[in-house]
Amino acid sequence: MTRRLLGGLALAACAVVPMHVAAAQLGPQPELRLDVLGASPCRVEMGAGVNLGAGNYQRVELDAAAGAFRRTGALVGSGRVDALMRLLLDPFGQRRWALSLAGGVSARYDAGDRVRPYLVGMLDLEGPPSHGVRVAYQVGFGGGVRLGVVLRRSRTVWR
């Protein structure tokens, strides 16, 4: 009986330690981004955001971006806010390159217009860490085709 109790306590201790490590590793992960949104008219936007750990395989991504596009020959300002949930297929960085799938909502504002909501879906290909940063390439939809390049601060163990 004592062996089983000690074995159970050892197993519980082994389970608690990784949870504390995971909580520390999954803190806020800042990112910078450059996006091209292909709905007519095509627009280019720069932005910043943060990824928040929501478990081993999930990240909540909150981004804000601003840019411009041409409307009847004049440059018009635009901006957006995105809230996405990313599902990582390799959260522990076992491969150099890893895919993740994202989905969520976006609110876009063009100067002189109203705020427009969009559903967003994306595929994210994230590369290996280099000098504390990971580069990710994104393709998706949400108010038109989206192409993006993202620089994320790399974590030591997790993506």
Overview of this structure, please?
- The chain has 159 residues and is of the alpha+beta class.
- The protein has one helix at 2-25, and strands at residues 29-37, 43-53, 58-71, 74-88, 98-110, 116-126, 133-141, 145-153.
- The protein has an eight-stranded antiparallel β-barrel with strand order 1-2-3-4-5-6-7-8.
- Strand 1 and strand 2 (43-53) form a beta hairpin.
- Mean pLDDT is 85; it is low at 5-24.
Strand order of the largest sheet: 1-2-3-4-5-6-7-8
Q: What is the global morphology?
A: elongated
Helix content: 10-25%
Order of helices and strands: HEEEEEEEE
Give average pLDDT, whole number.
85
Rg to the nearest angstrom? 20 Å
Beta-strand level of the residues, as a percent range?
A: over 45%
Low-confidence stretches: 5-24
List how many beta strands DSSP finds: 8
Biggest sheet overview: 8 strands, antiparallel, barrel
Number of helices: 1
- How does the helix and strand content classify structurally? alpha+beta
Distance between the termini: 41 Å
